[in-house]
Amino acid sequence: MFASAISLLETARSATVLCHVQPDADTIGSGLAIGTVLARRGVEVQVAFASPSELPESMNELPGRDMLTAPEDVRSRVDLVVTVDAGSRGRLGALADRIDMADACLVIDHHRSNTRFGTLNVVDDGAESTTAVITRLLDAWNVAVDTDLAHCLFAGLVTDTGSFRWVRPGSHLLAERLLATGIDGAAIARKLLDNHPFGWLPMLGSVLGSAALVQDAVGGLGLVYAVILRENSEGMRSEEIESVIDIVRTTSEAEVAAVFKQQSGDEWTVSLRSKTAVDVSTVAATLGGGGHRNAAGFTAHGAKTDVIDLLVDALG
Ligand code: 5GP
Ligand code: MN
């Protein structure tokens, strides 16, 4: 699975590594790890994501962040574009066109809904994180994983596994290998996951205070949801906003959890989580989004109640 990818990576003299919009630690950790390996080989490399304009603060200690390039400065022509943790072209936002200008596009991902939009696609939908796919790729390539690479790779692993709750045989061995390089796993996890300003607590108070349980939704399995209006999220970082779903989804009465995040007047991004019975990536795909079986998302336009109804209908 990795041989053709390695030969693409070995022959490129210039490369752009693209992370997905609204980046998380898996896409940035993956991008910086691949970028670092290429830069060490003498490849001219940029790492970028289309939006927002700033890297989330929780990721500002990841090694290699000097390679991050503002979208408008991303070269138009390179030998190779590598995309990391993006399930579809759309997830690259305004930088998607860089694919068409490159000689080749290598897609590295773990999303079930991946549309295989590269000239070569390394997609393992059983992998814990895209950084886990990359660790296995580096092993096949005989690239030694040092502390800088391990830091980036661990960042994606600890966040995408929900702090090692969603794991499979081999996941802890992977973590062990990365930790054995000498990285401080506790410090990395705290910085990425357990580090919110005090204002997060009153924000949670108002958002969770208006959460709703729709017991007859999802064919009787139940939907729980919360809504984050612009007024709730004002002054909040993406870290605070994206944490809400992790609390909402713990509701025992509901199979599916959703958080509706108002982006502007009538634009909403929606996070979906399921426990076991429902594949939310399929539901999200019918609404123009995608994701994993138990974690997915989409963007919708309309009044709040219409967007909620849209989801309730799609869930059946
Ligand atoms: P989150 O709720 O954390 O934003 O997203 C959960 C999962 O769904 C992530 O793996 C993310 O990549 C995917 N996802 C979220 N929104 C979208 C979207 O609009 N389109 C696609 N294709 N995937 C999405
Ligand atoms: Mn991921």
UniProtKB/TrEMBL annotation:
Highest taxon of the lineage: Bacteria
Keywords of the record: Hydrolase
EC number in record: 3.1.3.7
Gene3D superfamilies the UniProt entry points to: 3.10.310.30, inorganic pyrophosphatase (n-terminal core)
One GO molecular-function entry: 3'(2'),5'-bisphosphate nucleotidase activity
Domain (DDH) ranges: 16-156
One Pfam family named in its UniProt record: DHH
DHHA1 domain segment(s): 223-311
Keyword Hydrolase annotated: yes
Listed PANTHER family: BIFUNCTIONAL OLIGORIBONUCLEASE AND PAP PHOSPHATASE NRNA
Protein name: Bifunctional oligoribonuclease/PAP phosphatase NrnA
Organism: Rhodococcus sovatensis
Native organism taxonomy: Bacteria, Bacillati, Actinomycetota, Actinomycetes, Mycobacteriales
